[in-house]
Amino acid sequence: MALIRPIAALAGLALLSACVSVLPEQQTPNALYRLGDVPPVAELDANLVVREPMAERVLGGQDMVVESADGGLRLIQGVEWAGRLTRLMQGGMIDALSGEGDGIAVPELAGAPGAYELSWRIKDLTLFSGEGGSDRAVCVLDLTLMEGRSRAPVAQGKVRTEVAISTRSPERRAQALSQAARDCLAEAAVFVSGAVNEAYSPAMGN
């Protein structure tokens, strides 16, 4: 009986080794993509804390996603974001709101107080595969501006942008997704800036 346990353990290790060997190796992307330069398009009358946006797990990481006509999602092989998408979008929003106003936009981790906070969600940032080789990159953001102290909602909005492409190379798809994201951030920044500047009253301290 004393010999059975070591033999059983060795058999278990051999089985585990066989299982591990059949797992596919993780593919290394050929290229990593940033969002690109996001120029300032709006200014703030008051300080704004920009939270990292929420997103579904498949959208919020480094993978780029394409949706087929039947609604199935798959990853675009060979290309990835240069970092977690939610962090890239947060930085892009701050850049877009960095016009010459009295207020500034800062990330929540900076610890700086803000008269207002932006809570937002990436509802969509995928490439839709159409018929005849025609694709379009789509970005959708849900936006909620809140009062900094009470967290009471001040304004809510949604922006949506599309970028059409005619070729399905991974590089062109990645560029289209980046462009759709930049366009989305620009429109979102204009909305957020307008909501902050309309709500802010220096005389009332809010």
List keywords for this structure.
alpha/beta, 32% strand, 9-stranded mixed sheet, disordered N terminus, 31% helix, 206 residues
Strand count, sense and closure of the main sheet?
Answer: 9 strands, mixed
Our estimate of the beta-strand percent is 25-35%
- How many helical stretches? 4
| Ends apart, CA distance between termini | 79 Å
- The coarse silhouette is elongated
Helicity level, as a percent range? 25-40%
Sequence of secondary-structure elements: HEEEHEEHEEEEH
Count of beta strands = 9
Report the C-alpha radius of gyration, rounded.
23 Å
Structural class: alpha/beta
Query: Which ranges are low-confidence, i.e. pLDDT below 50, for 5 or more consecutive residues?
Result: 1-26
Mean pLDDT: 85
Protein model, in words:
With 206 residues, the chain is of the alpha/beta class. It has helices spanning 4-21, 57-60, 85-96, 170-199; strands spanning 31-33, 48-50, 54-55, 63-67, 73-81, 105-107, 116-129, 135-147, 153-165.
In short:
With 206 residues, this protein is α/β, with parallel strands linked by helices.
Question: SSE layout and pairings?
Answer:
Elements: H1 4-21, E1 31-33, E2 48-50, E3 54-55, H2 57-60, E4 63-67, E5 73-81, H3 85-96, E6 105-107, E7 116-129, E8 135-147, E9 153-165, H4 170-199
Helix pairs in contact: 3-4
